[in-house]
Write the structure tokens for this entry.
Amino acid sequence: MKKYLLFILAVAFSILLTACGGNNKSSGGGGEANASETVGEDIEGATELTFWTYQEQHMKIFKSAAERWNEEYPDRPIKLVAETYPYDQHHNNLLMAMQSGSGGPDIADIEVGRFSNFLQGDIQLEPMNEYMEPLKDVLIPSRIDMYSKDGNYYGVPTHLGATVVYYNQEIMDEAGVDIDSIKTWDDYVEAGKQVVEKTGVPMTTVETDEHWSYWPLVSQSGSDFFDENGELILSNEKNVKTLQFLQDMVYESEIAVTAPGGFHHSEEYYGFMNDGGAASLMMPMWYMGRFIDYMPDLKGKMVMKPMPLWEGSDAKTAGMGGTGTVVTKTSDNVDLAKEFLAYAKLSEEGSIALWKQLGFTPVRTDVWDSPELQEDNEYFDYFGDYIWDMVSEMSAEVSGIKLTPYTADVITELQSNVMHSVIREKSQTPKEALKQAEESIRGKMEAGE
Amino acid sequence: MLQSPTNDESRVRVPNTNKGQYSPNPNPKGDKKQNRVIRFLNSQKVAPYVFITPFIVSFLLLTLYPTIKAFTMSFQRVLPGQSHFIGWNNYERIFNPTFYKALQNTTIYVVLTVVILVVVPIVLSVILDSKLVKFKTLFRASLFIPSLTSVIVAGTIFRLIFGESDASAANQIIGIFGMEPIEWRYNSWSAMFLMVVLCCWRWMGVNMLYFLAGLQNIPKELYEAAEIDGANVFQKFYYVTLPFLKPITIFVITISIINGFRMFEESFVYWETSSPGNIGTTVVGYIYQQGIQQNDLGFGAAIGVVLMLIIFVISIIQLLLTGAFKRSDE
Amino acid sequence: MERKSASLYKWLATLAFALISFIALFPILGLIISSFRSSSELMRNGMSLTFNLSELNINNYSYIFTQASEYWNWYGNSLIISTLTIVLSLFFSSMVGYALALYEFKGRNVLFVLVLFIIMVPFEILMLPLYQLMINIQLIDTYFGVMMPLIVAPIAVFFFRQYALGLPKALMDAARIDGCTEYGVFFKIMMPLMLPSFAAMAILQGLNSWNNFLWPLLVLRSNDMFTLPIGLATLLTPYGNNYDVLIAGSVMTIIPIVILFLFFQKYFVSGLTVGGVKG
């Protein structure tokens, strides 16, 4: 018995050893992104900076910035250790590291929905004011204010996050709808009816597990979940009306279906859309990358347009989602980390890299007409070359969002209760669902005071 | 590590460890001292305490201390650098719709898994133990193999089987019976079904093994005696088999209840931490969501304390009812 | 006539078990077959009963063997952690269980209740204070930090105690008369008698450790310290999008364990048969 076991263990180990041995060589090479990567490990005396993110692609920006930095400042080189964790684990780990005051990285990405968790108590993040304030004129205010508290800017934004509607030109043509004729949401619903009638394909999809179908509409309508003073206004009239609008699209006019997989980032959804499952989709611009990566069959068919307008308003878009990159107080090299972060994401090259490498619209408006951004790339190939014109057209009216320590709770309520019972099950009216969510969050807010 | 030295006296069947250890010691003083220490440690009064030391240490460090800390935290709002006491506030907030939903889910899950994972394995093990079935070892092994998978791997598989597209295995199967495809992960009943199926699939074989082991303890003569008395199959099962399986059943029930209340991963693999309409939210999931994700450690701790009380009460009742405190050989 | 119906029952029972076994193994078989298919296609449409034989390929595996060095890292971590956990937890838990079963001493009952108590305390409510403790004693992101809560496993203590209750006390006295120390009695006389329970607990503890999820999720931070379940879970999220490694990697997590189990089977069953070694 024992012999067998030993034998098996020995075999298992030898397989392991050979496997590891074989792979050590290839791990240094580029190609496929890894969950952990290091730049500048062979530079002597380089200062080590660690960077944590939840989005593998974000490492690209920092890697290329580190390479540029080491060329530009050979006297104070950086060894960048970039690591990707899964979304939840990343934020939880980071939060706990902040709470305990040790074990954290120097630089970290924080997703907007989780950002507010880091603004509670003694804030364990370094203000970036010295780098943000000089650029204030060229940065979109709503996108930097959201990561600030008491006049301190803690997070460096990643993109504009302007919400657009992606239309499938082929389906729209088949239905005989001229996309440019859709000016208001009423037009959109009317067009939707025509699409459903002519093609049998739903006009759009609504998320039930996440909030990207709702929040942009709320923001565009001039409302939000919290007002200027951080008061919870989740169930105000506008928000109820907006949610009703979504519910009606699914159940009244029947132009929308719930998103397969529950949200627009699910593998099921990609498959559904790629096969021409819906005629249009409202998502922020950073969703472009998903089209390119997961919906190759739609290349050349998708057209982006600003959001249709609400009656009596001319807000054409809503700035949604995003990632605030921060420098933590637990860093051993706070000053260097801050300087490097600004170099990576706020500088002109950094902003250009955000577009060229990730397809993100930088928040720095003065680079929008730089020639590098007009160069042909996969985004132009896929969507067409009107992107920057559209961005400039919309940017005057990017509505912001107000983040408070309780934003994450609102999102949790939306994801796990409101969207499900109102959109998927229709078991509650928008008003009931929002009221109930508001009560539960208010309970927590009162506890915090 | 405590290890008795080798013994060179072949006179005795059982090795004599004392003698061999200290007799060659050249230092008579140290010898005496060591002798006393060994005597002390070796007394039947002290030895058990040495044996249980690891447990005591681990209890103090890994249970008592965190428990106290959890209780303290449940009365606090825990923020980096500024925790402060807020009285019963956390507890007052617990009794909200989400918590009730989580508790309801957990309770249903516990009841279902306990019933299924006790009744079915008993029946299976009795049949498998009888002369009726061929290839026993093969079947036993096949039923056990699912428990070797981690919840993550098993959950990945079940997500694929119960995919919402009509091409997924589960929907193809119900399609044969003319049923519409089901969005398994989005209905309240099917969500519970998914979690229970995942759990039962993994544990069925293990519990069956427990009962099979218990069946080996039943003296064959008892069955013969029962047969002479004219008992039929079901009477034999009820009057002979079941009483003998009682201790192992208690063990299985205890473990199932506790694991049911602690359940988190079975829900995590399907919906991660927030499920639509909280259909998959469990109490521990709620702790994780509130305590870790929402950074409301005090509130999370308070839910934990409530959960602990619930489990405690249920377990005490169950143990009292079944008399597990008695020594089995008394 | 009677004989005929008996053999019919036999066939029916065997057939029923064959069906049940098939259901039990179906998900694993399905996973194995699916691991030879395109993984993103799989995530989109789910695992289907029907598929095209021609679409089967070994791309997922060639990827895992040539490029997924991380996967093998996780594998190694899981192996090391599981092995150490088995050795340490068996050693300590058997000592405690043995003492609880066979010694009369003050506080024994209290201790046993404590053991049950710990089994009942959901570890999950203690994880946060424990996590802080791990940071304070600098065990975050270490193997030992992951293993610590498993080392004196109350469930193993409980099991060893139940098992040791069935051991003959007379043997202990005999050994004492022959001059054994209390520890000698345990290590040389009683422990060997408990061996079948060791095998069973080795499997259970090994499995627990191999499949442990929530605690390593908190303790382990860096990718090269991850265990398999943590690593695989990172691939399950929409942001992980490396389904090749997820599916094929899952298969390779199961297979070695299944092989081990096939060899260990008898030990496992006999280890659970508490009364089997009496006398």
About this structure: The CA atoms of residues 142 and 197 of chain C lie 29 Å apart. Chain C touches chain B through 108 residues (CB under 8 Å). The two ends of chain C are 44 Å apart (CA to CA). Chain C has 14 helices and no strands.
